[in-house]
Amino acid sequence: MPAPVKLLLATSNPGKLREYQALARGEPHGRAIELALVPGFERLPRFDESAPTFAENAAGKALHYSRFVELPVVADDSGLVVPALGGAPGVQSARYAGPGASDANRVRKLLEELRSKGVSDRRARFVCVMALAERARVLAVFSDSASGELLDAPRGTQGFGYDPIFFFPALGKSFAQISREEKNLFSHRGKAFRKLLEFLNSPG
After folding, report:
1. pTM as predicted
2. Exposure on the CB side of residue 13, measured as CA atoms within 13 A
3. Assigned CATH class of 5-201
4. How many helices and strands in the chain, by DSSP H and E?
């Protein structure tokens, strides 16, 4: 039986680690994946996620933290893209309502922006770009998305971020109303992570 693949996640967020561990367990085929946080992440020099694209931020972050550890590093950048707002909040999704803002603050600002501009096109998509790097070299970059529509008001109590106002037509619910298993199956992050797993399990 092949040895498990050990990866380090470039984040200080244990919730994100648990989400990826659940995704890895949900894919029983191929080599086992062991995920852990980058050791001492908070004490390492911080990577400035100020690039204009998800891909640049993800690759830059993976590259940066791979310089401090021996094992391969996975980093992601994700956010909500609203075409009617010129792609906003986009790479600024986590910082959309300013530093220290809550998820509720960000949702409120987005809904106010839609209302103030009289936006009728409610299409939106969640985007996730994931990068894998080892010893200051990017090995691969993966991306995927989930398309939906923006609601007028939050629905559901699951999930985080913009999930309560992101309506997913395929299930007829917001991302905050679906189970973790459903979200792992359909979400931008789940689909991008499965591409990473396919890469790790490919021969050669």
Report:
1. 0.91
2. 9
3. alpha beta
4. 5, 7
